Amino acid sequence: MHLPQPSFSPPLLGFGVMLIAFGVLLGPVFLVVGGVIVVIGIATWLIDDARAYSSAAEPTDGAHH
Questions:
Q1: pLDDT for the residue 57
Q2: CB 31 within 8 A of CB 23
Q3: For residues 36 and 12, what is the distance between their CA atoms, to the nearest angstrom?
Q4: pLDDT for position 45
Q5: Mean pLDDT across the chain, nearest whole number?
Q6: Three-state DSSP state, 13
Q7: Which of 12, 27, 46, 58 could form a disulfide with 41 if both were Cys (CB 3.0 to 4.6 A apart)?
Q8: Structure confidence by residue, pLDDT tens digits, 26-51
Q9: Which residues contact 30 (CB under 8 A, 6 or more apart)?
């Protein structure tokens, strides 16, 4: 079974979404900071996935996906 490597991206993304939700209630500063953190979280998650994809070994059992 393949499991992804541990990453800070999902909790970072969740924290950014939480700040955006607070921003709806408390003001635009939280919206902006939360939005920046969400963008950083998505970017790091995509970079992690690209690195995992490029370093993944090709299957040698003849199966094609």
A1: 66
A2: yes
A3: 11
A4: 92
A5: 87
A6: helix
A7: 12
A8: 999 999 999 999 999 999 999 998 88
A9: 19, 20, 22, 23
